[in-house]
């Protein structure tokens, strides 16, 4: 797989690369946040059609998320997102998305830096450039895809454009996932009881469902959607989110020095603090996995295979994707993967004494080995919600509970 980063100029124009003078492309477009089962179906279809027609399978991926860019502009007097501002609502980081696209057989990923000037371009202009420069002859989209200024370009209008021009075909993937109702403006809400929380609508009558929808100002979204995944994770419903994703939800970051209190009570943890790539589920204790991706320096070198941008905003050549061996570390039986009891929150048992109240992720690897992970990039994957955060009366009470959490983790993920 090859990767090209594209930076729009001040007018929102992109210097799209010519991938070949003879070979055409099957293209799909989007953010692919989380690369859930719906995204996977679209990408697989693009790869399938590309192989059938001896074409390139091309993903045009926007980064940062358009929703993040437009929300930031609305709350900051219409300005774009400055460099270094972290998108805490993104389900997955770019590195994770690229790994999955590589596994699915994509030939090229064109990463477009999404900004307000680029967003102002019409979908007709955008698709015309893909046809003329990237060699697009087939466009593969999900059934609810929209693009262009004001999101005017829906599947119906794009299909009409394809028929009228005759220069590309539109292939629409129907995911058959159905719809669900999600609060329009939801906030994370930790479950009050131990165990994986259930659907709040389960067992409700139609009248009760309507009352719930009205109370929370619910809107209908596709079940296989990033919005639904984000909602589920914000409520601690990790197992349901993983079902939509088709894989375990995970976050990635660098292990930093914490207060090292866990070491003193026999439960040393890998501590991650913001910024973290990926959406942090609601506060609580989870069963999952801790995976060592290697030192931050080595990881950064292996995951940034991009040349400098030239004056036109295009990397001078398409850089081949390299994982730096990350796939082998992520493998199911990798020696760098350990079952882990994961805590997200503000350390209610100790924060009054320490004076620290920041939200942190702590992962305790259930292993007899001593792990030294400071300065390493790690991935933390979530399998199931175990319990809400609790303030314990003593350190010993906390130790006893942590032992139970470790045992529960092994039962959940398999010893």
TrEMBL record:
MF-aspect GO terms: ATP binding; FMN adenylyltransferase activity; riboflavin kinase activity
GO biological process: FAD biosynthetic process; FMN biosynthetic process; riboflavin biosynthetic process
Source superkingdom: Bacteria
Gene3D superfamilies in alphabetical order: HUPs, Riboflavin kinase-like
E.C. numbers: 2.7.1.26, 2.7.7.2
InterPro entries assigned to the protein according to its UniProt record, in alphabetical order: FAD_synthase, Riboflavin_kinase, Riboflavin_kinase_bac/euk, Riboflavin_kinase_dom_sf, Rossmann-like_a/b/a_fold
Enzyme class, spelled out: transferase
Pfam family name, one: Flavokinase
Record has Nucleotide-binding as a keyword: yes
Ranges for domain Riboflavin kinase: 244-414
This protein's UniProt keywords: ATP-binding, FAD, Flavoprotein, FMN, Kinase, Nucleotide-binding, Nucleotidyltransferase, Transferase
Pathway: Cofactor biosynthesis; FAD biosynthesis; FAD from FMN: step 1/1
Keyword flag Nucleotide-binding: yes
CDD domains: FAD_synthetase_N
Disordered: annotated span: 183-204
Family from the record: Belongs to the RibF family.
Protein name, UniProt field: Riboflavin kinase
Species of origin: Bifidobacterium choerinum
């Amino acid at each position: 797989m090859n990767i090209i980063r594209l930076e729009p100029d001040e007018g929102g124009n992109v210097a799209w690369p010519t991938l070949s003078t003879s070979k055409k492309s099957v293209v799909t477009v989007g953010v692919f946040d989380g690369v859930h089962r719906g995204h996977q179906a679209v990408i697989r279809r693009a790869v399938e059609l590309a192989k059938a027609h001896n074409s390139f399978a091309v993903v045009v991926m926007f980064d940062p998320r358009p929703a993040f860019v437009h929300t930031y502009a609305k709350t900051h007097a219409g300005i774009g997102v400055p460099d270094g501002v972290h998108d805490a609502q993104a389900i997955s980081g770019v590195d994770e998305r690229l790994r999955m696209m590589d596994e699915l057989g994509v030939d090229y990923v064109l990463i477009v830096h999404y900004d307000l000037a680029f967003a102002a371009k019409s979908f007709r202009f955008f698709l015309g450039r893909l046809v003329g420069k990237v060699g697009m002859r087939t466009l593969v989209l999900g059934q609810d895809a929209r693009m262009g200024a004001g999101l005017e370009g829906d599947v119906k209008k794009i299909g009409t454009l394809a028929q009228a021009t005759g220069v590309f075909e539109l292939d629409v993937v129907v995911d058959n996932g159905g719809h669900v109702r999600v609060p329009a403006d939801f906030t994370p809400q930790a479950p009050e009881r131990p165990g994986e929380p259930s659907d709040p609508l389960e067992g409700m009558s139609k009248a009760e469902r309507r009352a719930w929808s009205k109370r929370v100002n619910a809107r209908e979204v596709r079940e296989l959607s990033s919005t639904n995944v984000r909602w589920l994770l914000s409520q601690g419903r990790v197992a349901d989110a993983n079902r939509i994703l088709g894989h375990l939800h995970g976050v990635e970051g660098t292990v930093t020095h914490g207060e090292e209190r866990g070491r003193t009570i026999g439960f040393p943890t890998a501590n991650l603090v913001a910024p973290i790539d990926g959406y942090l589920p609601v506060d609580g204790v989870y069963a999952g996995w801790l995976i060592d991706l290697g030192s931050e320096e080595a990881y950064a070198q292996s995951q940034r295979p991009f040349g400098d941008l030239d004056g036109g905003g295009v990397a001078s050549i398409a850089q081949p994707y390299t994982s730096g061996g990350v796939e082998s570390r992520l493998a199911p039986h990798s020696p760098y993967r350990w079952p882990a009891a994961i805590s997200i929150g503000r350390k209610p048992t100790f924060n009054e004494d320490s004076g620290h109240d920041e939200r942190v992720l702590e992962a305790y690897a259930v292993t007899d080995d001593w792990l030294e992970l400071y300065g390493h990039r790690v991935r933390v994957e979530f399998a199931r919600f175990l319990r809400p955060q609790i303030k314990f009366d003593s350190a010993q009470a906390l130790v006893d509970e942590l032992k139970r959490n470790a045992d529960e983790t092994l039962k959940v993920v398999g010893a």
